[in-house]
Design goal:
With about 425 residues, this protein is mainly alpha-helical. It is built from 19 helices and six strands. The strands form two sheets. Strands 1-2-3 form a three-stranded antiparallel sheet. A three-stranded antiparallel sheet has the order 4-5-6. It binds carboxymethyl coenzyme *A. Carboxymethyl coenzyme *A (CMC) binds next to loops.
């Protein structure tokens, strides 16, 4: 632990011996016991399925206090970033550690435009996917394919031109996302344009067509920007840990991010935003019986969970969910959709859950995925694209963590241990003698 402050030792009393383990404290007072030498000194390992209590690294990027509901990037509160920043500013902040000044922002945006196109040969890949292909599958495959088209990224990310690396990925992921949607509905691709901002460009590539002279709605642009900011990073979540894990093997940035996209797709992680809408739709179709759904989520006889509820770290209201809920309601009101039935069901679910002892005692609150899908739906974004938008938002965080890991002093391949519980050594039986 080279950066955190050493602060005394912990004494671990084992049956055979006592081991002294160093304690480290982070800048926000988070305490950690360094068990790096434990096995060498004692023969013991620790076991912690799901890494509930295990820190995998030090990081300067994001701070989360799950008890107080605090989220900060590089020291800035998420509330302030969400209120005041463009997504690209937050992306710059995560990667560079500082907010960009005006000239840095201009050159970052210029690079974003310059890097927005895909190599034309990549278009063939899209054309060969079956029509119903999930955009997350396409997204992951396309990102890993980028490494064949732009192999120089590995050299650039060694330090030469960081902005080039970052904008190339951020800009192309947006184009890939929109193309995968166009492919899924059988419409021609719409190319990125230098005339638009980051979010306008995405919406234009999604909704413009030869027969629809689309103009991005400023309300939708603002909402999309906000939701991308809310998703920009969240320290060592499942997909970000995948980025670090895959990257720790020496795999390139594209490969690490393609793997993270697959992790994000899962319904317990980023896929929850899609699962929330499916759940709300189902409740509506079945007559809107919210109480019954709450009972089902509590029941031990089913694996059903209230999607968009609960969080590994937050034991209070997720600060991102608070902002997303407000923005979702404002957007729907301004669009004249204030009485949206799914929003009504979501709010009733929340109200009932937050009064129910099952949810209260387990500290289960709405998370960032609970309200975002309702807003995306109002913006005309299809359900299958929700997790793609999460990926687009999370990309700067993934890049920042990959770069931090590669630039850091501790370079160790991710390789957990296990407690083996299979058969002990037994005699081999030749094929003909086996029962
Ligand atoms: N509905 C009903 N019960 C729940 C829920 C839920 N959504 N979430 C947790 N619980 C219960 C769980 O059954 C357990 O009860 P008991 O102690 O009686 O066994 C207790 O709460 C603790 O749950 P856990 O599974 O040990 O908690 P975890 O930290 O391992 O899981 C989670 C966190 C997010 C995977 C989980 O809360 C969940 O499955 N939520 C629904 C999916 C979801 O919304 N995911 C998005 C997460 S936020 C954005 C992101 O990271 O991508």
């Amino acid at each position: 632990m080279p950066k955190a402050q050493k602060s005394g030792t912990a004494t671990l009393q084992l049956p055979e011996k006592t081991v002294e383990l160093p304690i480290y404290v982070g800048t926000e007072g988070e305490r950690a016991i360094d068990i790096g030498a434990l096995r060498k000194e004692s023969g013991y390992i620790t076991i912690d399925p799901g890494f509930v209590n295990s820190g995998a690294c030090e990081s300067d990027i994001t701070f989360v206090d799950g008890e107080k509901g605090i989220l900060r990037h590089r020291g800035y509160d998420i509330e302030e970033l969400a209120e005041n920043c463009l997504f690209l500013e937050v992306a710059y902040l995560l990667v560079h550690g500082k907010l960009p000044n005006r000239s840095e922002m201009q050159s970052f945006s210029r690079l974003m435009n310059r890097n927005s196109m895909l190599h034309e040969d990549m278009i063939n890949f899209f054309n060969n996917y079956p029509e119903g292909a999930h955009p997350m599958a396409v997204l992951s495959a396309m990102v890993v394919s980028l490494s064949s088209f732009y192999p120089e990224i590995e050299r650039e990310s060694e330090g030469a031109d960081l902005d080039m690396t970052v904008t190339r990925l951020l800009s192309k992921l947006r184009t890939i996302a929109a193309f995968s949607y166009k492919k899924s509905i059988g419409e021609p691709f719409v190319y990125p344009s230098h005339k638009f901002t980051y979010c306008e460009n995405f919406l234009n590539m999604m909704f413009s067509s030869p027969v629809n002279d689309y103009r991005p709605d400023p309300l939708a642009v603002r909402a999309l920007n906000l939701f991308l900011v809310l998703h920009a990073d969240h320290e060592q979540n499942c997909s970000t840990s995948v980025v670090r894990f895959v990257g720790s093997a020496g795999s390139n940035l594209y490969a690490s991010i393609a793997a993270a996209i697959c992790a994000l797709w899962g319904p317990l992680h980023g896929g929850a935003n899609e699962a929330v809408i499916k759940m709300l739709e189902q409740i509506r179709q079945e007559g809107g019986n919210v109480a019954r759904v709450i009972e089902r989520a509590k029941s031990r006889d089913t694996s059903f969970r209230l999607m968009g509820f609960g969080h590994r770290v937050y034991k209070t209201y997720d600060p991102r969910a608070k902002i997303a809920k407000r923005a979702c309601r404002q957007l729907l009101d301004k669009m004249g959709m204030g009485g949206d039935p799914l929003l009504e069901i979501a709010m009733e679910l929340e109200e009932r859950a937050l009064k129910d002892d099952y949810f209260v005692s387990r500290h289960l609150y709405p998370n960032v995925d609970f309200y975002t899908g309702i807003a995306y739906r109002a913006m005309g974004i299809p359900t299958s694209m929700f997790t793609v938008l999460f990926a687009l938002g999370r990309l700067p965080g993934w890049i920042a963590h990959w770069l931090e890991q590669h630039g850091g002093e501790v370079k160790k391949i991710g390789r957990p241990r296990q407690v083996y519980t299979g058969p002990v050594r037994r005699a081999f039986v030749p094929l003909d003698e086996r029962e």
